[in-house]
Structure formats: C-alpha cells, structure tokens
C-alpha cells in the first residue's frame, strides 16, 4: 500500500490482486442471498483505490481494508432493504414491466420469469400466468380451473409472496 | 478468478497518482476553515462584535470562554479525523473529548456554590440564556456544512458517530466564534447554555449523519 501511495503501479497491482482474494473469502462467508459477492469485491476495490488517501501508514493495512469491506456490506444491505420492502408488489411490478416492455427486453424478462416461476406448483404458476400475463379476470381463471374465486386469489397471493420470499431476502417472512 | 475483477484491478493500477501525506488533515482543515470564515462573517453581519470587545480581550473570563469552545473544537476535530479513516481507533481522544466539559462543569459548580443565593439566578440564566443556544447553533451551521463536505470526501464507516462528532466540532467552533459577540461571563452560564448550543449542532449532525455522510 505504501508503494501505491507513492504511485508505483506494479506493487500496487499485486496488492489489489491479493486483496481481491481476501475480499472474496470475506464476502463469501457474509454475503446474504440476493447480493452478489463479486459486485461487493469490485466496489470495495474501487473504494480502496479512490479513498486510499485515508490509509494511515502507521495502521495495519488489513484493518483499514476490512473496515471498508464491512462498510460496503452494510451499505449494500441498506440499499437492498430499501427496494425490497414489499416483495408481493415487487413481483407484481415485474409482471407489469413485462407488459410494458417490448422486444428483446420482454423476451429476457419472460425468460427470467419462467425460471423464477419454476419453483411454484404447476397450478399456481398457471393461475399467475393467466391472470397477470394473459389478462384473464380472477373469475375467468377460477372457472377454467374449477376453483372458487377466492381460492384463486389466495393461491395467486401465496405464489407471489413465496416468490418475493425467495428473491426478496430472507427477512421477509417469519420475523 | 473473475475476469471482470481482474480487468478492474488492471485499470485501477494503470493510473496511480501519488498521494501526499496529510491529505486527511488538510481536507478537514479546509472544510472547517471555509466554514469558519462563513460563520465569522455571519456573526459579524448578524450580531456584530460585542461593543466592549477591546476591554473584554484583557479579562480572563473572555479567554476561558474562548478556550473552552476552541479546545473542545480542536479535540473533536482530531477525533473526526480518526472517524474519517476506516478502521482507525478513537483511543484516548474519545476520553480527552470529555475533559473540557468536565473542567467547565467543575468550575461552574464551584462558582455557583460559592455565590450568594440572590446572585445565583443571574449566574445561571444571564440575560441571553433563551437565545444563546440557538445563536450558537445557527453560527455553527456553516461549519457543519464544511465538516460534512470534508468528511464525506474521506471514508467514514460509522456514520452516526461521525455525524455526531462533526456536529459537536462545528458547534464548538461556532461557540468560539459566537464568544466575540456575546457578553455573558459566568461559568455556570457557559457550562449550560454554550454546551447546549454545541449539543444542538451535534444532535443535528448525528440525525443527518447516515444520510449526509454516505459515500460510494
């Protein structure tokens, strides 16, 4: 790091290399589902680089770098919590995005959607697809499957919620 | 392991400008210095220096007041420098920050206890107690802005604590500036109302810390 502060490129590159391995181990253990550990590694490397003036040569380098890594993890969690507050609405938003988007974007979203929905029971999947994508009303879907309207609503809600639980972080359900 | 990360490392280490030592202290000094200039201008235009400033400069009480605020500000500025560095320990500075408050509180208590009962109310309340904390807080605001600018360009990792100390430092330097406009001279007054003014800015800094000091 001292070499980095002095502007020497090669030792500095080796340091970042070594650090990226440490960070990968650090985030590998701590990164919650829904966050990408490699993203955090990269963000931390950028922060280490751009804020290297705050490194005090009298201080252990790892203490400094890990403090940044922890800050980055907390910051990422803070951001994730902000936009994953309402998972059921999130899933709904995904469907309307699919409605609104055209062309390649829609195809991509559709592929994501298929993959995401694969975890649901087949009938719930059909119900969600019919009401949210094909545009059937709850009553039409109920007739088609020989269910009551309220059973359809409950199944769809449960399906969306479990998707939200799966992709919205573990703190959504239970506590 | 990851190609994107390797490329990032190559890009970052391709251009490594030298970093001069003392960058943290310089940035803090710049932020607080500019804030201090604005605060002083605000004090001069808004309140004006106390009319008897020339005589006051030769009284110990004026310098005791100035010393209390200025020393508190200096200690908190040093502590802020620590908090702006990831992984740095507050160490003895955290304890040291309490010292000026303890000294002034002890002086205030002694002064108050030894005063005749009929004089005690004036010692405590002066004639500006209701406006003094607000004026100190107002004069501290440009300093808080300067401190926030400086710290968010560094790398604070405990944002509420850093906001608290940034606010405390701004409040203390603001109180030192306000001392040139204020003619209160009793230690009990100082211990309560000046301290309250500093605490207002500190509370503001702590409350806004997470929002204002976040960096990416």
Tally of distinct domains of chain B: 1
| Uncertain segments of chain A | 100-106, 169-175
Largest interface, per-chain counts?
Answer: A-B, 40 and 28 residues
Largest sheet of chain A: none
Q: How many structurally independent domains of chain A?
A: 2
Indicate the radius of gyration of chain B in whole angstroms. Answer: 20 Å
Principal-axes geometry of chain B comes out as elongated
Residues in β-strands, percent of chain B:
under 5%
Assembly status:
heterodimer
Number of strands of chain A: 0
The helix-strand sequence of chain A is HHHHHHHHH
Q: How large is the radius of gyration of chain A? A: 23 Å
Care to give the gist of this entry?
Chain A has 175 residues and is mostly helical.
Architecture overview:
The complex is a heterodimer of chains A (175) and B (216). Chain A is built from nine helices and no strands. Chain A has 175 residues and is mainly α. Mean pLDDT of chain A is 76; it is low at 100-106 and 169-175. In chain A, helix 8 packs across helix 9 (149-167). With 216 residues, chain B is mostly helical. Helices cover 76% and strands 0% of the residues of chain B. Chain B contains nine helices and no strands. Chain B has helices at 3-14, 23-46, 53-56, 60-83, 92-114, 117-125, 132-152, 159-178, 187-213. In chain B, 44% of the residues are buried.
